[in-house]
Amino acid sequence: MQDALIITTAIAVLLFVGVICSWMGNKLRIPDILLLILTGMFFGAIEYKNQPLIQFPTVFLTSVAILALAMIVFDSTARLPIRELDTFSLKAVKLTFVGTLFTLVFFTAAVHYIINLPFWVSLLLASIMTGTAPEAVLTFAGKSKVLTLLKLESLFNTPLTVILPFVVLDLMENITALQIAEVIEQAVPFIMKFIVGIGAGVFVGIVLFKIVQKSYVEVYSPLVVIIAALLAYVLAENLGGSGVLSVTALGLFFGNVYVKQKITLLGIESVMAKALYILVFMLTGIIIKIPFTKEFFIASGILFGTYTAIRFFACWISLRKEYKLGELIFMSLDAPKGVATAAVVFILTVYNIEGITTMIDMIFAFILYSIILASIVTWISHFYENSPTRH
Question: How confident is the model at residue 252 (pLDDT cuts 50, 70, 90)?
Answer without folding.
Answer: confident
